[in-house]
Amino acid sequence: MSILKNENKPSFFAPFGPTMGYFKMPPEMVEYLNKSMDKNLDDFSDYLVGKVSQELHFDKDTRKYAADELTQFIIDYHQYTKNRNSMGEANLDKNKRPYLDIIAAWFVRQFEHEYNPMHVHENCTLSCVGYLKLPEGINEEWEKDYKDHYPSNGHIHFVYGTSGQYTCSNFLIKPQVGDFYIFPSYLFHGVYPFYTKGERRSFSMNMIFSMV
Ligand SMILES: [Fe+2]
Q1: How far is the CA of 196 from the centre of ligand 1 (A)?
Q2: Are strands 116-119 and 188-191 parallel, antiparallel or unpaired?
Q3: DSSP-assigned letters across all residues of the chain
Q4: Residue 153 within any structural domain of the chain
Q5: pLDDT tier, 51 (very low <50, low <70, confident <90, very high otherwise)
Q6: Span from the CA of 185 to the centroid of ligand 1 (angstroms)
Q7: What percent of the chain has pLDDT over 90?
Q8: What is the mean pLDDT of residues 39-61?
Q9: N or C: which terminus of the chain carries fewer CB neighbours within 10 A?
Q10: 16 lies in some domain
Q11: How far is the CA of 104 from the centre of ligand 1 (A)?
């Protein structure tokens, strides 16, 4: 088990469960994606589970830009997962070429009182969410919310498996502009409503990654 760096020392490890990935998007990337919203994009919110105002398809250029910016991170995510899932024994095959197929990509425009019920993403293996904008003044709402016993306004909640001793079955994230997460597409997640007037904007992509 080469994942255990020093077998003579006590250590803790978590070999079960899905891997998530985090990447901080540079400000230029956030700006580029926000500007892409100025284009006339197709709204397909009627076909998705979100109870939100708009879910707008990326156009071809935006999709290509996102793929160029994120592919290396997604390769690293697969390398990490392959290595972890084999307890350090396996790695991505260096003789093969990574191929990222973006099946769908869209902006999510969520306003006060809107929400996104628990769901998974279908017809893909990997999904992601990146945060592009938050309502002005949401920090004051969060300040109050964090005095409560279970703060969650405007947060995304990931759920996996069953609750039990020594295991973690859920993960709650407070969105911050520039934060980008990837996760297996079968992982249940939902977004809670917030009450500050304004837009919480994110984007998601459904992807299939392969080594060819
Ligand atoms: Fe989703």
Answers
A1: 22
A2: antiparallel
A3: -TTSS-TTS------SS---EEEE--HHHHHHHHHHTTS-PPB-GGGSS-BSSEEEE--HHHHHHHHHHHHHHHHHHHHHHHHHHTTTS----TTS-EEEEEEEEEEEEEETT-BEEEE---SSSEEEEEEEE--TTHHHHHHHHTTSSS--TT-EEEE-S---TT---EEEE---TTEEEEEETTSEEEE----SSSEEEEEEEEEEEEE-
A4: yes
A5: confident
A6: 8
A7: 80
A8: 77
A9: C
A10: no
A11: 12
Count the domains in the chain: 1
More confident residue, 167 or 8: 167
| CATH number, domain containing residue 108 | 2.60.120.620
Ligand 1 centroid distance, CA of 189 (Å):
6
| 39 alpha carbon – ligand 1 mean position (Å) | 23
Tokens of 36: 């892409």
Range of the domain at 38: 21-211
Provide the pLDDT confidence category of residue 47 given band limits of 50, 70 and 90: low
- Is 15 within the bounds of a domain? no
**What is the Å distance from ligand 1's center to 89 Cα?**
32
Strands of the 126-133 sheet, one edge to the other: 21-24, 179-184, 126-133, 199-211, 98-111, 54-57
Say what the pLDDT of residue 38 is.
Answer: 77
